[in-house]
Amino acid sequence: MERAMLTDKDEKVRKALEKTRELSIPDEKTMPVLAKLLEEADGSWSLIKLDNYSVLIDAVLSADEEKKQSEGSSNGNRGKNLKVNDSPATLKKSYETRSATSGSSIQGVQNQPQLSNGDRKRKYKKKISDITKGSERVEISLVDDVGSEPMPKFTYIPHNIVYQSAYLHVSLARISDEDCCANCEGNCLSADFPCTCARETSGEYAYTNEGLLEEKFLDTCLKMKKEPDRFHKVYCKDCPLERDHNKGTHGKCDGHLIRKFIKECWRKCGCDMQCGNRVVQRGISCKLQVYFTQEGKGWGLRTLHDLPKGTFICEYIGEILTNTELYERNIRFSGERHTYPVTLDADWGSEKELKDEEALCLDATICGNVARFINHRCEDANMIDIPVEIETPDRHYYHIAFFTLRDVKAMDELTWDYMIDFNDKSHPVKAFRCCCGSESCRDKKTKGSQGKSERRKIVPAKKQSGSKVGALKRK
Ligand SMILES: C[S@@+](CC[C@H](N)C(=O)[O-])C[C@H]1O[C@@H](n2cnc3c(N)ncnc32)[C@H](O)[C@@H]1O
Fold this sequence. Notes:
Elements: H1 8-22, H2 27-40, H3 46-70, H4 88-101, H5 107-110, E1 126-128, E2 141-144, E3 155-156, E4 161-162, H6 215-226, E5 233-234, E6 243-244, E7 249-250, E8 256-257, E9 262-263, E10 288-292, E11 299-303, E12 312-315, E13 318-322, H7 323-333, E14 341-343, E15 360-368, E16 375-376, E17 383-389, E18 399-404, E19 415-416
Parallel strand pairs: 2-10, 3-15, 4-13, 9-17, 16-19
Antiparallel strand pairs: 1-2, 5-8, 6-7, 10-11, 12-18, 13-15, 14-15, 17-18
GO molecular function, one term: zinc ion binding
Subcellular location: Chromosome; Nucleus
Keywords: Chromatin regulator, Chromosome, Metal-binding, Methyltransferase, Nucleus, Transferase, Zinc
């Protein structure tokens, strides 16, 4: 009866205390550390429960050691001064045995900062509780265990905004009857037949009833990215990516795939906001955290929850720039700061010629959302970018949404393959020395210097076909 009256949180606290009591750690030592860890993890219990509560136990022991040290004790053996029944040696051994036998394949734990003696310590030097300043449905914290890195300078925006000249014409009049489901009601996914909005995805919705991306759709998108040459490509007569604005010349187009789009229901549709075919437009719902990576990649993004395959994470948000504006911005920022542009070229293949003002990109350098922290990983990244049509059928502009490609564990970094061709010798701008750590890392030249971060300015490298990050030819 008493147990039944416990809240979910009480129950979780009780279980955590059970674990620490097993090591004879008194509750009064555990409780403040537990509260602090919960605050750092934005109330998420995934971290605390990780690895059979070893993160919590570790933090309690570390806190105790620190307290002892600050009280002037010269002997800093972990746990030595705990008032426990076991001797310190037994306690430490017990903890080490647990760590060794807990089968810690969880990357989140491996990614915790390691001290020279192998202990993990969670101490954040800097913390922002919500980088979105309340503009998203969820708070997104930023933590830095290292403490030496300057805070990222940018303005958080939750939606794309036209910088200046991009022609983005959104009007209800342009949405034809074939582009919306005016007669639907409630949730389109529970209707007897798929509505007009599912036409884009061959009459089947891209999303499941659980709000995940359909596996078949996800797998096809991945295949297009991995093996672009197996799909039909179209070549521009004058490719915006290959224009050399200085010389007024243009290089050969590498070819563009016509990528698969998700089409979500929107304003003219009869369904409601909770309709299962409106996932991306409802915004971020996962608990995410920006943190400073240990591998030399700068800031990165991680999840605080376990996530199933096909979960929508976030959009890539930035200023909408024309090809010309991006070119000018790249020159202006040259040598100053990294630029983070992503070209909106998913439908360029359907057009033979594109003017500079029609070729658009999203640049998150000055204004962007949490996606500007997503690092690159060669080949086995855990997310994919998928084009999404929402408010306009004009595909010069669309949304870029990130979905998980497999189940992802709490505290794992969320990564994306920028599709950079690191071996393109003809391109004058080298992107960055890749420290992704993947066995199939494509940046072979950096192998000898892995770990020594050489973070070069500017992302744009000549793209491989089907790529997203990258932009203009710069001579
Ligand atoms: C979109 S930003 C990602 C966030 C960035 N790490 C930061 O601190 O703001 C892209 C930049 O991150 C760095 N980066 C991303 N992936 C990397 C990788 N695998 N290895 C090294 N640096 C990487 C590069 O400097 C790149 O220009």
